[in-house]
Hints:
Chain A has 272 residues and is of the alpha/beta class. Chain A is built from 12 helices and 8 strands.
Amino acid sequence: MAQLSAYEKLGLARRNDRPRTMDYIDQMFSDFIELKGDRCYGDDPAVVGGIAFYKGIPVTVLGNRRGKNVEENLRFNFGMPNPEGYRKSQRLARQAEKFGRPVICFIDTPGAYPGKGAEERGQGQAIAENIALFSDLSVPVVSIVIGEGGSGGALAFGAADSVLMMENAVYEILSPEGFASILWRNSSLASRACRLMKPTAQDLKELGIIDEIVSEPPGGAHTDPRAAIKNADRAVYGHVTRLLKEDPDALVENRYRKYRRIDGRRRQMQHT
Amino acid sequence: MDTFEIKRHKVELMKYLRKNLEFVKKEVGVLPENMIEKCPSCRTVFSYKELSENLRVCPSCGHHFKMTAYERIDMMCDEGSFHELAAGAVSHDVLDFPEYRRVLKEAKQQSGLNEAYVFGTCRINARHAVIGVLDSSFIMGSMGSVVGEKIALSIEIAQRKKYPLVIFSASGGARMQEGTVSLMQMAKTASAIKRFDRAGGLFISILTDPTTGGVLASYASLGDIIIAEPGALIGFAGPRVIEQTIGEKLPEGFQRSEYLLEHGFLDMIVDRIHMKETVAKLMSLNERRS
Lengths: 272, 290
Ligand SMILES: [Zn+2]
């Protein structure tokens, strides 16, 4: 496939017919059982969580849920979680740790929901706690960005031992539209913003932010979802089995070191 | 003097210790006593000196003016006890982002700081601590890779020395010009706090105006004790974005300290006059019995 621009990739990542979290779950796992609720306030439909067998290994699965049409998108809030989504995630991650299950996360959200209720119920605190909890889990965590991963709302599921990205996925500080409107007060400059933000899998691999790029069929994942998911499956399984061999303390230590190192360049700081 | 001039002089002044009045007079050509500032809340006009002596709290209505990092440090640390660390760390244009080099250069000139986060060891009422302060006059106190690095370093040093950690946050969130690299600083700082927490460290997180976005959604929300200054804007999403999303106007006081306290996200609101004494008391109450 010819080299696509970052903005073209964003277009692919946002296509309604692109495979989404539920497609990955259906194809990769068996006996998936969804577990709902944050045991505090509600259940967030924008975050799906549960347990399943992954080629015989019990795993905990979390993911952003997005729709494929207007009706579904409304139901799943366009993939934008409320605090309940992050608290459900914490509950299920703790449970995974208790039973020694690896956690597999599918990232596909434009960001956390900027709503009034979300703020009242502590969106910032919920995301912070989620990141902190994941950073310290004694079980392997593998995250894969399958579509659009936007802002802290996406990173909440991305403090992982291995972070993978589909070839045409994007992982960004916020949507290019939002970025352009903040920086230049003009959201129509999104295409320029997208290029400058360097949000593609290829950019982020170079910056040491992600670990592996998963190839998509020519034309993008929507042209052959089964093949795309098969590639993701192979890559994720490789990481899960490798990480399962590691000592839990080493796992947590290496995860810490991994994020501690990310500074855009390799060694830019002179410590005094 | 017109307001522009006042601002310029004020900014210049921050580079130097305020105590050194004669030096400042020589360098800037104006005495701090002669500068004036208007309270944005009650519109009363005060001299710079009057405000400084009152810890930059409006004497007539209690409005908390913005403070620079070194003003905070002066306010909190016992005299002469602050030793700054990693002061020379400067940011680089990691993504080759247009104008970022210029933005950084201007921020340095205007704030007199190398980056938005200043930290070091100090004593607070004779007790050892690591103190860190975000200064919103440096690119909105945004958390780029060097700010993230310095915050993580301050946490690690507090852990190593077994000192309590006190961080004053003031930030617009992520550093746009560093893209996803900036986003990753949330993971860096939150996981450093988690380790500090596991090691039994005391983290007092103090939220000042404004604490938003990725800073609120990482280390700043993870304090053992979370304090806010009165009237500070504290939220994940900006009020403008929320209004656009939900298509309605937000109520008065939304995302302000008092509102967060009411919703259960703060331990307390402490005004600046009582901040040092409160933090010192919390430090002594949280000392581990050994
Ligand atoms: Zn006033």
